[in-house]
Design brief:
- It is a single chain.
- By secondary structure, the protein is an alpha+beta fold.
- It is about 15% helix and about 40% strand.
- The chain has a 6-stranded antiparallel beta sheet, with no helix packed on it.
- α1 crosses α2.
- The chain starts with a strand and ends with a strand.
């Protein structure tokens, strides 16, 4: 399956052919739908058939084989037949907000010095958990540092390395609880120029200035070595 979002996060729609459709979902030969993973939710949207019929997609998930994307239709939606030509279109407003938050969480990795033990991305907010023994994080200082990096408008770009290259540089995997997808021979990195470089298969904006102003909503003590930092778009 061609996963267009891996190289072009701004692609909102694509023409595709249905490979299969059943109770577990719909598979296409190519897609712009990001499949849930790495803390980022799967895309929602619609599949439009040539006869004008539509199937609402309420989620996108990873299939059993590496790189497979399963499009989950709304309950009761009519399934397209195998071989049917469709236009796959994501809910762009939702995706773009997820892209902005996801990229900001990478900035948070650069601002907070500590291993990441978990994270979650949602529409308008996100959080990372850090393995930090003492509650020494300051909301105002982190907010200021994040907005400075946003205003500096650093370029953001994906690039690829082999799985062997990743094995030789394990520090590129910064989230202890989530490993990058393996088995395809290569691994995607996300580089924020001059700020951060790490393995990531998610979707991101092209420059940090596109994120907009953010704020640290709260810092929670989730255990002896677990500090949760929650961020959100400022003013929302």
């Amino acid at each position: 399956m061609e996963r267009i979002f891996e190289d072009d996060a701004y692609a909102r729609a694509c023409d595709a052919v249905v490979i299969s459709a059943g109770a577990d979902g719909i598979r296409l030969d190519r897609t712009v739908f990001y499949a849930m993973g790495g803390g980022q939710p799967g895309d929602t949207g619609v599949l439009r058939l040539e006869d004008g019929a539509e199937a609402a997609i309420v989620d996108a998930r990873r299939g059993e084989s590496p790189g497979d994307v399963v499009h989950v239709p709304a309950e009761g939606a009519a399934l397209p037949a195998a071989g049917a030509k469709v236009t796959a279109e994501i809910d762009w407003q939702r995706r773009h907000r997820l892209m902005r938050i996801h990229t900001c969480l990478h900035l948070l990795c650069a601002v907070v010095d500590g291993p990441v033990t978990g994270g979650q991305i949602s529409d308008g907010k996100g959080r990372l958990d850090f393995d930090i023994p003492e509650l020494t994080l300051d909301k105002a200082a982190i907010t200021a540092a994040l907005n400075r990096l946003i205003e500096e408008n650093h370029a953001v770009r994906p690039r690829w390395i082999t799985e062997d290259e990743l094995a030789a540089e394990p520090e590129l995997v910064k989230t202890m609880s989530v490993r990058p997808p393996m088995g395809q021979g290569r691994v995607r990195l996300l580089e924020i120029e001059g700020v951060d470089l790490q393995a990531c298969g998610g979707t991101h904006v092209a420059a940090t200035g596109e994120i907009g102003r953010v704020e640290v909503r709260k810092i929670e003590n989730k255990g002896r070595h677990n500090r949760r930092v929650v961020i959100a778009f400022a003013g929302e």
